[in-house]
Specification:
The mean pLDDT is about 90. The relative contact order is 0.13. A five-stranded mixed β-sheet has the order 1-2-5-4-3. The chain has about 200 residues and is α+β, with helices and mostly antiparallel strands. It has two domains: about 150 residues, 2-Layer Sandwich (Beta Polymerase, domain 2), CATH 3.30.460; about 45 residues. The chain is flat and about 60 Å long. A hairpin with a 4-residue loop joins strand 4 and strand 5. Helix content is about 55%, strand content about 20%.
Length: about 200
């Protein structure tokens, strides 16, 4: 029972960390709107890993299913996905978030500069953020994925095809999906260039 209560507390802690990070991002976006009449963030999504998913991942790693081992070994319990308009917005938002003095960057993986073999593109950050509780401060890891609308479109459909259907994706279809990712990446670059041109005209 004591261990169960600890996991309930853990769920609350990581949910609170998500709210902390979302608030930081919303404030940044609001400031841009006020100063530059522009919102770099299109929208924000969040995800808290379920106890079942945590248990499955812990078991796959061969480590004890305790609150302590979960906190030490899993970095994606709390997830925030930031959908930006343009590629340059991704890096600007990431830099502004990680430069805040109460945020510590734990890990950074740039799948935009170096896409995954299947064509997946996104910027992944693991940050440590403080959560202020009634009696103490806790430092909590949150995974932040930042991508464009176009990248999110591809990733969402690719995930749907790969994990939500019973049909295995063949090598030929995998190559077609990768080609779609390349086309979308080129579209992203073109849209960003169009935006820059229009901004210079204004």
């Amino acid at each position: 029972m004591d261990q169960m209560f600890k996991f309930i507390e853990l769920e609350h802690l990581y949910g609170s960390a998500i709210r902390e990070v979302k608030t930081k991002l919303e404030i940044l976006d609001s400031e841009f709107s006020t100063k530059y009449s522009y919102n770099p963030i299109h929208h924000i999504e969040d995800r808290l890993k379920s106890p079942q998913s945590i248990y499955k991942k812990i078991c796959s790693k061969g480590i004890p299913f305790t609150v302590e081992s979960v906190r030490e070994n899993l970095f994606d319990i709390a997830g925030v996905r930031v959908i930006c308009n343009y590629i340059e917005d991704i890096y600007q938002v990431a830099d502004l978030l990680t430069s805040q003095d109460d945020v510590t960057l734990i890990r950074r993986k740039d799948y935009i500069t170096n896409p995954k073999p299947n064509g997946y593109r996104s910027l992944h950050l693991v940050i440590e953020t403080p959560v202020y509780l009634s009696e103490k401060k806790e430092l909590v890891n949150v995974e932040v994925q930042i991508r464009t609308i176009a990248m999110d479109f591809w990733a969402s459909l690719e995930h749907e095809l790969k994990y939500k259907t019973d049909t295995e994706v063949s090598a030929d279809l995998a190559e077609q999906l990768k080609e779609c990712a390349e086309t979308i990446a080129q579209t992203d670059l073109k849209m960003q260039q169009i935006y820059r041109t229009l901004r210079e005209i204004d």
